[in-house]
Amino acid sequence: MLQTLSTASSLWNPSQRSACLEIVEFQRSQLSSLSPCPFYLKFGSKSVQKGRALVSGTFPYACQRPKQYPAGKKPGEYPQNMDLPPLLPKKKKKPYPIPFKEIQKAARKDKKLAERGIEKPLQPPKNGLLVPELIPVAYEVLDAWKLLIKGLAQLLYVIPVYGCSECSEVHVAHSGHNIQDCKGPSSSKRRGLHSWVKGSINDILIPIESYHLYDPFGRRIKHETRFDYDRIPAVVELCIQAGVDIPEYPSRRRTNPIRMIGKKIIDRGGYVEEPKPWRAVDPSSSSIIDLDTCGACERFPPPSPEDVPIIAQETMNAHETVQTGVTKLMKKYTVKACGYCSEVHVGPWGHNAKLCGEFKHQWRDGKHGWQDATVSEVFPPNYVWHVQDPKGPPMRSALKRYYGKAPAVIELCMQAGAQVPRRYKPMMRLDIIVPESEEASLVA
Question: Which of 14, 149, 339, 354 is disulfide-compatible with 366, CB 3.0–4.6 A?
C-alpha cells in the first residue's frame, strides 16, 4: 500500500506549493481480514496546517472499502420479499437440473472407458449397495411421512380447504377467493372465476406415485407388464430403496456390487424371482395403509380444540423433516422424472410404460422423456395464496399483486397455530399491508 502512495507522490509537481499529500498508514493485521483489494485512492478537498500557513486543496488519501453483500445474500438473513419460481410452459420440455454439457461430458468419459474395456467405477448406491449413513435418514423420513399424513387428516376437520373443480387451484380459508385466474375448460363462461368445492388431503399433499421395484437393477418395466407392479408414494419407494424394510414391499439387498462397462451391466448377481405383490395379503390388516393418503380423514378422529396448535406444529416439523430428508436421499439415490408430465420413477433408469400424454407424445409413442428429477417433483410444494385473515372478505383480482403465496401444508399449519419457518416468510409477504380497493388505485 505504501508503494502505491509513494508512486503517486513521485508524480506530484513540487512547484505546486498549495497542495500536499496525506499518507494514512494501516496496521498489517487489518490487511488479512479484508478483501483482496481493501484500499483505494480517494481525492477530496481538505485544509492542512503546514508550518505557519494553512494550505487548502485537493489531496489523495487511502480509504478502506466497506464489505458489501449482494441484495438478500447477507449471511443468516432472507430477502424482504421473494417471487415464486416461474411456471414452466406445458408445450415445452422441462429444463435439465444438471447442465446438458456436463451430461454429455460424463457420457463421453464413459464411452472412452467402454471402448478400452475398462469397468465403470461405481460407488454406493450406484453399484447396488446401500449407503449405511443414509439408512437412519430413510427411517426418519418414513416416520415423518406417516406423521404428516396423520396431522393433515386431523387439521382438515378444523381448517376448511377448497379446490377448484375445473383446474388445480387450491385455497385454504373459510371461503374461496375471487381472483380470476381459472384456466379450466369452462372458465370463459365464469369470466375466470373458480368453481369451488370442498377439498381433501390430496389437494394439500399432492400424491406422486411410483412403481415399486423389488430389484431396481433388474428387468425394466414394460408396457405389457405394468400391472404386475404396485404403485406406492414416491417418497415411500425412495425410503425403501435407501434401506427401510417393509414386509409388504420387499426389496433386494445386495452383498456384492454390480459391474458395468459403459451402459451395459456385465455382472448383476443374476436375476431373482420377484415376490408376488402385496395384493395377495389383506391390506386392511397391514400397516401399509398409514403410508397412503387414501382414506386418511376417515382413519383419524377430529382433534380437540386445545390440541390443534400442538398438532399443527408437529405437522409443520414433519413436513420440514420430509423435505430435508428427501433432499439428502436424492443426492445419492437416482430418481428419474418425465420432462413432459408429472411421472416419477425411483431407480437408475426409467420404465418403458407408454403412459405419457403430454406435449408431442405421438413422436415418442407415449414413452416418457426421462431425466434427473428435482425435489419439487418428488415432493411438490403446491403453492397457494397466503390469507392474512381467513375469516375476512375474499381475495380480489384488483389486489393480486399485494398477496403472497406459501406451500399448502405451511399455510394450513399456520392458520392452525404453528410457527412459520423463516425461509417461507419472504414469499408470503408478511410485511406488506393490503390496501383497500379505493386506495389501490392511488398506489404508484
Answer: 354
